[in-house]
Each structure stands twice: as C-alpha cells, then as structure tokens.
Amino acid sequence: MITVTDLRKVYQQGKKEVVALDGVTLSVPKGSIHGIIGHSGAGKSTLVRCLTLLDRPTSGSVSIDGTELSSVRDSEIRAARRRIGMVFQHANLMDSRTAAGNVAHPLELVKTPKDKTRTRVAELLKLVGLEGFENAYPSQLSGGQRQRVGIARALASEPEVLLCDEPTSALDPATTNEILDLIQELTSRLQLTVLIITHEMNVVKRVCNSVSLLSRGRIIEHGALEDVAGELDSQLARALLPLPPSFPLPGPLQRGPVLEIVFSGDSAKEPVLTGVARHFDMDINVLAGSVETLGGQQFGHLRVQLAENSDVDGVLGYLTDRGISARRVAPVAGAAPEFPDTLPDPDLPDPVVPNQGLHPTKEQGRHE
Ligand SMILES: Nc1ncnc2c1ncn2[C@@H]1O[C@H](COP(=O)(O)OP(=O)(O)O)[C@@H](O)[C@H]1O
Ligand SMILES: [Mg+2]
Fold first, then answer.
1. pLDDT score, position 138
2. Pocket flag, ligand 1, residue 42 (CB < 6 Å)
3. What's the pLDDT tens digit per position in 282-338?
4. By alpha-carbon position, which residue is closest to atom 3 of ligand 1?
5. What is the rounded distance in angstroms from the CA atom of residue 68 to the CA atom of residue 151?
6. Which range of residues forms the domain containing residue 187?
7. Considering its fold, how many domains does the chain have in total?
8. Distance (Å) from CA 20 to ligand 1 centroid
9. 235 domain-assigned
10. I need a surface site. Which of 112, 148, 164, 169 has the fewest CB within 10 A?
11. Residue whose CA lies nearest to ligand 1 atom number 13
C-alpha cells in the first residue's frame, strides 16, 4: 500500500516559484495497479522523483505500509529507496553488462554474497520469461526483452512498490501488451503495489485498476476505472471510451436531437435502445459507438439521434432511471482527436454545446 498525502513541490526558478505538484493525494492498495496520466508539464516526473526520494517534497508525505518515506534521514535514503523498484521508459540497462549482470547490479551494491546473487538472478530472469538469456548483452536483445531485464532488475531488492515511468512508450503495440501483461501478472503473483506513469490511454485500459488525471500539479479526476468510465462529463471517460466524429444522417432524422449514452456493467447487457424506441414509439439512429472491457466490465458508449420533436427530457429520465449516463450533445460532436489513444487536451473546451445551431457551417475539428 502506498499513500501520498497533500504532496507539494515548489521549484525556485530565479525569483519565480514553479509549483510542480500542488497537493497530490492518492493511495494505491497492495496488489493493484494505479495509472497516472497527464500531459507534458503536468508534474509526472516530479511526482516520480518525489516518490523515489531523488527529490525532497516541499511538503506532504509519502508512506509505504505506514512507514513515512519523506521524513527519512539522508543516511537511510538508500534503504528506503529499495522499497520502491523503478522501471524506466528505455529500460536504462548497462550496455557492458549481460542480462544477468544487469539484474545482479542492485544486489552487488548491497554486497549480497556471490552464490546467493547467482541463484536470485536466475530466479528473476525466469520470472520475467528470460530463461536462457543470462549471457546476452542488451544489444543482442529486443526492446521487449530489454524491458523484461529492466523489470527483473527492479524486482531484485524485493520492493513492495513498483514505479513504472512510461514503461511501454518506446515499444510497439504487440510488445507493449506483452510487457503490460507481465506487469499485471507480477502484481498479483508478488502482491506488488504498482504505479504506472503514462500518457497512453491503452496502458490504463489494459491493466490499471484505478487512474488519476494529473494536470498542472493537481489530480483533477480520479477513481476506479469502472467508475470514471461511466462519468460522461469527465475527460477520463472521453479518453477511455472515445467516439469517432459523426454527422447527422440525411433524411427524416436529420434535425433530431443527439444524445450520448454510456452503458456500464449490467446495463450494458440490457437492450436499452430498443426499450427507448418502444417506450416512446420513436425511431433512433446510432451515429457512432464503441464498446470496451474496462476493469473486467463491459462498457458501451453510443451517440444516437432521436426523431425530430422527441421528448428529450423524457428519454433522458428513462435512461437515468435505469442507471445509464446520458446527455444531450451538439449535433456535430466528438471531432476526432489528433491522437485517438492519448488524452484529450484539458485546455480545449468541452465539445458539448447544447442548443447549438443544428447545421454546422464548417467541419469541426479539422485544422488546415
Ligand atoms: N528542476 C526544476 N526546476 C524548475 N522547474 C521545474 C523543475 N523540474 C520541473 N519543473 C517544472 O515543473 C513542472 C512539472 O514538470 P514535470 O514534472 O517534468 O512534468 P511532466 O513530467 O509531467 O512533463 C513544469 O512546469 C516544469 O517546468
Ligand atoms: Mg516528464
């Protein structure tokens, strides 16, 4: 269990103060994976440095299983740091050492006896699926294999917490998934507490139990994956269940109101749309949709258009009564993000513009 309470870090830049972390509070239970997602400059690296004691927080606390890390004396920092294993974006291996030599390094630093080191290194390499690669040098390994060595090295000192800083940003999609699955397997097998810093939503979707959105040094949204995904207005939900852009269909429905709906858990299994169609005796067109499994639950995100002059409030009430998030949106909604798998920019205005003119004059979201 790692607990961060009201963590602040203020840098002095000449006469100017830069608030890199502005009261970050989070807690991650043992055996679970928490994702921290945020744009460049949000404070992610500062958070990593404060958690690993490479930087001292200005105020606030970091504790592992109740032991306060931020108040340890300088002489004890090394020992405290061993409770947190670090996995880096580029594995950061020593080129002149073999896979075994890299994994052995942290054990040598604390003067572990040679034979004990040898057994432990073999165990660790087996754990990450690299049996038989003991004598390979980093240059002879693929990106995914190098990251496996990095993970084995991070686990050498038997840490309780694994802190992964963009662990898959340098990997292709297939290897990314392999490494994420390995992290997930190790988390439950070794009962680790894992924090993954990332800007890729796919990482959050695949392995995280909970997620925090960091913006300008503050956590502006957070929660269990299945909870944040169901909150239609949240940036995290929009990033977790993105919809392609859509335009009103030609024909009789063209002027009808447009709704966005998020089904989750049990409600995803019910035929809600046909329920609405029958109950209100109306036609419904699906303009866009996506279905995902998040935190082991099914989620569906739909943009639908109702017939003109529909009882919008009635439909919204019908859906809310059944525990389904729904809201009215502008007819041209959800312009495609530039990088569909990354986070929407918090500085951009919310695309929801109720009661906007029905006929767009220009395609939205396209930049010349
Ligand atoms: N050593 C430093 N001195 C002054 N300002 C810093 C320092 N490190 C980071 N910052 C500032 O703190 C903010 C957060 O930076 P950082 O933690 O690197 O963000 P991220 O990793 O999310 O891109 C930025 O405004 C950055 O300019
Ligand atoms: Mg950074």
1. 97
2. yes
3. 989 888 998 888 877 888 899 999 988 889 999 999 998 988 889 998 776 554 443
4. 11
5. 25
6. 2-229
7. 2
8. 6
9. no
10. 169
11. 20
